[in-house]
Prior knowledge:
Layout: E1 24-26, H1 34-42, E2 52-54, H2 55-71, H3 75-99
Antiparallel strand pairs: 1-2
Helix pairs in contact: 2-3
Amino acid sequence: xxxxxxxxxxxxxxxxxxxxxxxxxxxxxxxxxxxxxxxxxxxxxxxxxxxxxxxxxxxxxxxxxxxxxxxxxxxxxxxxxxxxxxxxxxxxxxxxxxxxx
Length: 101
């Protein structure tokens, strides 16, 4: 009989401090291989300018890495999951906004 594996996804919400929206961080500070950084850009996960990534997108990189490490998801799959998770967050925010009316 084949064993069934169960996987759980944890959702993390990251917020930046006021004024951090325009900040950029060195891609090398993320401690990932430069080729992976390039692939992340190719899949539209991050924007890179002169080796810098917007601070607001650094959390996206960490989510993708966590999906790959925890669930063994390949990079294209992680990109799709990331988009879906962000869409879920947007919908949850909209539900909360509508509840407050």
